[in-house]
Amino acid sequence: MDRVVYVAMTGAKHTMRANQVNTNNLANINTTGFRGDLAAFQSKPIEGAGYPSRINSVTQSNGADFTPGSLITTGRELDVAVKGEGWIAVQTADGGEAYTRAGDFTVNNAGMLLTSAGQPVLGNGGPIAVPPFSKLEIGKDGTISVLPVGQAPSTLAVVDRIKLVNPPREQLNKTAEGLFKTADGATQAADAKVTLASGVLETSNVNGVSALVNMIELSRHLEVQVKLIKQAEENDAATAQVMRVG
């Protein structure tokens, strides 16, 4: 009896974990540049003495889905999207380097160029700071040019250049903040082949319909596992009743 309960319990536990991954993807369907997480079930026999008669369902992370999202035109001068392969380098809370596809930038009161999540955008020499401006342009190579306040239109000045990188996908791990880091934590050199589109944003790559269908399927799987546990409990009670009668 314990075998049925144990197998059903592990199945229910990992189904709940898979549902957490799917729910997080669904919650970020409108997050700019978001890359969905992948999870899959795997059958794994219990090793040990005797015959391998018990097999558990285990959720296994398959990393992130690197399928690009759609591009939408905003016309906003601080919005950019990476064209094709590549990433935008940002500074993490601990001072390290991470990578994102979210190009919806803002400039705070101190003149720091930030992502919508508050991470400083990195340039040639560290976080990018811009002087007070009346106009800002971001070139396809990441070059940031500004028209200082009170200056003539012909006085555009280059401030910095956004650090754009393109590390191999297999070297990237996703963090809890939705950013990506290299597996060994090493920083990447800027890649001149990575280009940006200005006035454009990349949407999340999560398919809402597929995520909803997956949520329904996972809920049904969990229901089956819980019913198995309940049935095992009823069978155990019936067996105990028979033993008492005997």
Write the layout of secondary structure elements.
Blueprint lengths: L1 H26 L9 E9 L9 E10 L6 E3 L6 E4 L3 E5 L5 E4 L5 E2 L5 E2 L18 E6 L4 E6 L8 E5 L2 E2 L6 E3 L5 E3 L12 E4 L1 E3 L5 H38 L1
Antiparallel strand pairs: 1-2, 3-16, 4-15, 5-6, 5-12, 7-8, 9-10, 10-11, 13-14
Helix pairs in contact: 1-2
Query: Main sheet, how many strands, which sense, barrel?
Result: 3 strands, antiparallel
How large is the share of residues in beta strands? 25-35%
**What fraction, in percent, of the residue positions are helical?**
25-40%
Q: Give the ordered list of helices and strands.
A: HEEEEEEEEEEEEEEEEH
Terminal CA distance reads 20 Å
Q: What does the radius of gyration come to?
A: 26 Å
Shape: elongated
Mean pLDDT: 88
pLDDT < 50 stretches: none
Content-based structural category: alpha+beta
Count of DSSP helices?
Answer: 2
Q: In order across it, which strands form the biggest sheet?
A: 6-5-12
Number of strands: 16
Provide structural commentary.
With 246 residues, the chain is of the alpha+beta class. Helices cover 26% and strands 29% of the residues. The chain is built from two helices and 16 strands. The strands form seven sheets. A three-stranded antiparallel beta sheet has the order 6-5-12, with no helix packed on it. It has a three-stranded antiparallel beta sheet with strand order 9-10-11, with no helix packed on it. It has a two-stranded antiparallel ribbon with strand order 1-2. A hairpin with an 8-residue loop joins β10 and β11. The longest helix has 38 residues. It is elongated and about 100 Å long. The model has no long low-confidence stretch (mean pLDDT 88).
